[in-house]
Amino acid sequence: MRGATHAKWAACAVAVALAATACGGGSDSGGGGETGIVSSSWGDPQNPLEPANTNEVQGGKVLDMLFRGLKRYDPKTGEANNMLAEKIETTDSQNFTITLKDGWKFSNDEPVTAQSFVDAWNYGADVTKKQNNSPFFSDIVGYADVHPATGDPKSTTMSGLVVKDPKTFTVALKEKFSTWPETLGYQAFSPLPKAFFTDHEGWLKKPVGNGPYTVDSYTKGTGMKLRKWDAYTGADKAVNGGVDLKVYTDNNTAYTDLISGNLDLVDDIPAQQLKNVANDLGDRYINQPALIIQTLTFPLYDPQWNKEGMEKVRRGISMAINRDEITKQIFKETRTPAKDWTSPALGDKGGFSATACGEACSFNPTEAKKLIQEAGGLPGGKVTLTSNVDTGSHRDWMDAVCNSVNNALGEGPVCTVNPIGTFADFRNQQSSFKLTGPFRSGWQADYPLIQNFLEPLYYTGASSNYGKFSNPEFDKLIDEANRESDAAKATATFQESQKILAAQMPSIPLWYQNGSAGHSERISDVALNQFSVPVYDQIKVS
Asked: pLDDT-derived band of residue 47, with 50, 70 and 90 as boundaries?
């Protein structure tokens, strides 16, 4: 995924213009509501629900219910198993032949064909379509023709994609990419029906996919109703009648609704309730490791944060943060101080390193102050942290981080907080490069590979590289790792690239985040996948 993204920016949001009736409250949602319907907390997504345009968690939750791709990540192990793909063959890790299984259809009864994938990928890559996930297709031959760095595209299709017959297509990559097939479970690679192209506006109002659910209605700011698609032929058919996603701008309110019986599922327990959750929910509380890391990213597009010597300031700020105390006091046992830029859920074999960040991630107020003073101090004498504050208890930890920095530097309240009310507004400012101080960058992996924690965020020009970090040596190591066919050697090279991050500190690793959730007595078989997203289709309603 050279220069790719996800996102799934962890904490989150599709301002889709779906026509509809209101979805909150009422007799057909919540505990004791419509038979077989699960009600769950949610947040309005940032963008329309096009697979190539959704790169954050809340929109991703919906796409996971609406679409199935060539591969699907096992909810328990994260293993990339074939879903619509019968086989993906290659002899050189650069040219692939993909054969589809028989019998798959979209919910409007259109068959899923090789053309469904090729058309979707060409659309996602097309610079004129302005899709957030375009860089996921940048490895394919012909990407530059449909997505030039400047000017108009030369073509609307990538020459590296060729349909051979209704069940078969070939993919030519620009370079060897040994783990490329493992990325194909990400939602950006979903197929699209002809209706998406012939009536795009209508499709956006009511998306049509090939997954176990269909969209019944959506009202921005209120919620979305999804219903089981009875004709779905996959092995993971929904065991419930549907899911009502309810929009909350405060997770404490969602938690209160859960406890009072007005909501079935909350998949992000607010920090303020962690002291109560075990007594409130007992074994209906889920807390497990996930492929999520929270970081503070510096806006290196702002000259004051990117001038010579400023890496010392960035390292100093990192060393001024008492991660141990903050995670214990605010997050109890749901966060772990970060030691690298990946996740322990990858495991040592997968590339996690407890030493990659080294001293830069260790609390040392004396050294922190020294480094910052050596570099001439904080730019403008201050630092402002920014995050949305509608989910994730972000205001609490930002205040705690600033207190830690202020105490370490001893220069008064030089660290302050700039809270942004909603995730969508925060993401809009972040993606338009309007933030002038360190900002929260929660990252939930798209697939369980170390590459996904590094390339999308720090490779030059990557679409989730919102700090605009650029380092030729880092890029070189990422390219080498992608070309390496030996998995162990590739992982070691990815780990080597983290030494550059530790020296330059384009972002500060804060903590690894567990997946947490709580549910009502009305539902059972509730589980979170490795990405901390509820496995909605397997939830049973009593």
From this structure: confident
